[in-house]
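Incident log, entry 3
Record: PepSY domain-containing protein (362 residues)
Problem: checksum mismatch between cached and fresh output.
Input:
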Amino acid sequence: MTARRLVVKLHLYTGLFVGLLLAVTGLSGSVLVFREELEALAHQHLLVSDGSGERVAVADVVAAVQRAYPADKPFAIRVPRAPQETYLVKLNNAHDRFVYVDPYDGSILGTHRQRETVLGWLALLHTELLAGEAGETVVGVGGLLLLGLGATGVVLWWPRNGKLSQGFKMQWSAHWKRLNFDLHRATGIYAVLFLSITAATGAAFVFNASAIDLVDALTASAPRPPAPRLPPDRPGAPAPTLDALLQAADRALPLPTTWVSLPQTASAPLVVRKKRPDEPHPNGRNFVFLDPRSGAVLQLERDLLAPRGTRVFNTLYPLHVGAIAGTPTRILQAAVGLAPLVLMVTGLAMWANRRRRKRPPR
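Fresh output:
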């Protein structure tokens, strides 16, 4: 078997094996690029308050949610970033029950579990195939296989006569089989760079620890510091309120707060997430770790002062969702998400046609 024939086989059977998975994650990803705007249309009554005046204390928001759902545990709080935006309190984990609270009177506007909404269901399909950690691993492996498909695809695309321009052209007047081949080849070469970035970043989220180690090694960076643990308790002084903790975080790092991660164990800190105005990450990559018992700042993480490897890793999510340069790159990313479906359909047509040619006459 020649080297080219081996590459053909690898490309073909990898595509047949993983094509449907890539089409599903690509299509769902194209929709999720505009998740924020679509949620605003679908759930405006949950996301927008018509109140005004002074906002209620954040502690009162959490207390109202706990009274309404005593069997659930507050996990994280999305802080309003605009005057009429509501609080979102996540219960139990990042993907379970979402509760929306009016920031001006503390009333609960509504609730749902993530998989109960179309966009929430799509997000779980995109990230874990609705199958938890096992599905997440499958998605990550699919991303790695997509990198292999891209590499073998470029090898097969490369014109043997050296005329690269031929590889970008479509013969619109040709027979449908030739047109299908040209569409597969052109879609692949135009999308390969963007699909490779999407695949690599997506796989990095799944295999997070290994990806962090790899980026640190490639950038010759020191490992990022672990999240701090609480020091020994000093009983006597009353614990500060949640609002006092947020004020301490603002003093330590005066940037807008986006999320608050509440301690889930007795030894865990409270984590306040913040975002610079010009930061490409939608939620920011600046963190304040606080001792919830005393309000002491345990650790600060600033994106601009982070080790080189951490700064590189912080760009992966904005790259994955097309947030690097605003709306133009988001539109581009949504278009790229359609490419796996086109490649799957045209690839299947090519494979079926070849099998039909090889079938002996009856």
